[in-house]
Specification:
Strand order of the largest sheet: 1-2
Distance between the termini: 14 Å
Largest sheet: 2 strands, antiparallel
Radius of gyration: 16 Å
Structural class: mainly alpha
Shape: elongated
Number of domains: 1
Length: 191
């Protein structure tokens, strides 16, 4: 795959993660703050499966960070989003491509197993990281009671996002995989 194709797909996944996060979310207000239920993380997982962890994680992180920067409610979370979504991509790429070597097999059950495991690992890391970073940030800025309330709601929302994003990303990727393989695009990743 040429650099131009990788750049194009990176931009496409960044735009898709932005659009899915921004326009297909359910905001949950927490006082003057908010969290949301969304499928942006599913796009990060799919990007990491297609492009590899570093590039896929970067694409998803870029799109969702831009979404944060353009929303007054989320603007202060942009650095956290950049870090957390990059971590999702790196873990998904590591598990799927380095450990599972999904690019080296035609066995659909093996591919499914590693895609599912990689999505679960990447999104589980986000369930731990995202609310924890938010908690310590709010503890410093708003104090313990606000941080504790926000942590519980963010943990619940992040858990729901992880479950739905795992299901969506695995089924979408498994649907795309035969097409990617046929077009020799299954070897894109820089895992």
């Amino acid at each position: 795959m040429h650099k131009t194709q990788k750049l194009t797909l990176t931009a496409l996944f960044a735009a898709l993660s932005y659009a899915v996060f921004t326009f297909l979310q359910i905001k949950i207000p927490i006082g003057a703050d908010a969290t949301s239920i969304h499928l942006g993380n599913a796009v990060v997982v799919i990007a990491a499966l297609v492009l590899g962890g570093p590039l896929g994680g970067f694409a998803g992180a870029l799109g969702m960070t831009i979404g944060d920067l353009l929303d007054p409610v989320y603007i202060t979370y942009a650095p956290k989003t950049l870090i957390c979504k990059m971590v999702i991509g790196l873990i998904v790429g590591l598990v799927a491509h380095k450990l599972g070597k999904i690019q080296d097999t035609n066995d659909k059950s093996k591919i499914f197993k590693w895609v599912l495991l990689s999505a679960v690992c990447g999104l589980f890391a986000n369930v731990i990281l995202d609310p924890s970073i938010g908690y310590f940030y709010k503890l410093l800025v708003l104090g313990k009671p606000a941080a504790e309330l926000s942590f519980k709601i963010n943990l619940m929302a992040t858990g729901i996002n992880a479950i739905t994003s795992t299901i969506v990303s695995v089924f979408v990727y498994m649907g795309l995989y035969p097409i990617l393989r046929k077009q020799n695009m299954d070897t894109l990743r820089l895992a």
